[in-house]
Amino acid sequence: QVQLVESGGGLVQAGGSLRLSCAASGRSFSSYAMGWFRQAPGKEREFVAAINRNGGNTYYGDSVKGRFTISRDNAKDTVYLQMNSLKPEDTAVYYCGAKEAYYSNYFTSRYSYDYWGQGTQVTVSS
Fold first, then answer.
1. 43: DSSP letter
2. Is there a contact between 106 and 51 (Cβ–Cβ < 8 Å)?
3. pLDDT digits over 17-36, tens only?
4. What is the 3-state secondary structure (H, E, C) of 53-114?
5. Does residue 100 contact residue 86 with C-beta atoms inside 8 Å?
């Protein structure tokens, strides 16, 4: 099993940038496809971005496409979410998830993920 810890959230003005990190410990990080999701108050957990085991395949939710970039560093057991051109509607708790997977797969459904971090709050002011 793997433990996940997110960091990097905070308060930022609209148009600004943040980079979230998700550090993994436990079993081999490179065995896992990773994803970022977010959840605003009163809403369901929403897919943001996903990446496969070696970082060669990525996929984004429509609301963040062109503004957010997911990446990973398997040597550091960490996945990142670079968020640019932030909008107030990006305000949410951001979670990273992990799923043991075959080489090229990534996953966009929250039900696919086996492990989750505790989340980090991102607040974008207008």
1. S
2. yes
3. 999 999 999 879 999 999 99
4. CCCCCEEECCCCCCCEEEEEECCCCEEEEEECCCCHHHCEEEEEEEEECCCCCCCCCHHHCC
5. no
